[in-house]
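Running this now, will post back.
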Amino acid sequence: MLGEFGRAHGLKGEVRLKSATADPLAIAAYGPLRTSRGDTLTLTRVRSAPGAAPDILIAVVQGVTTRDAAEALNRVELLLDRDRLPPPEDEDEFRLADLVGLSVETPTGTPLGRVIAVPNYGGGDLLEIAPLGRGPTAFLPFTKAFVPLVDIAARRLVADAPNDLFAPARPYPDDPEASSDAPRARRPKRLQGKRNPEVPR
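Update: finished.
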């Protein structure tokens, strides 16, 4: 998947688009794209959405000129055949689709779980990891510090994860309305992802 349309933007057919390419604006350079509903669309122009995450764009789609037509694109995915994708430019670039499904293990070889998604909330690529058993998923920054080895051929990666990776999150200590034992949602510390250089842990 190269991207997914969101809600309409304005009255003249523009539509929000979440891009999954390494350079979000490059999604318009691929020419006609297949969609998840079975037709083909061409992006004639894209620009960054003001005040949004870098991968959120405003797109003009060939033949879409009204707000109603743009609204009809909401949740439609844009697809591209794998053989039309350019190869990664360096050893630290990976196609997100290749990361999903990789088994995750510690540096000593202990299995941790499996990658189920590679989201980006504006602060860099994250690995969403499902544990081996039941329980909530956890997020790990996709950096060399946390992920020193990615072996696509062997369908595995090594994660230098904290011991409490899957531990239930606790309330913030300065939240007077949260009880000490109340869980809170984890806050994450994103076609191509790239491992960032080492960051302080």
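Confidence is low (pLDDT under 50) at residues 178-192. More later if anyone needs it.
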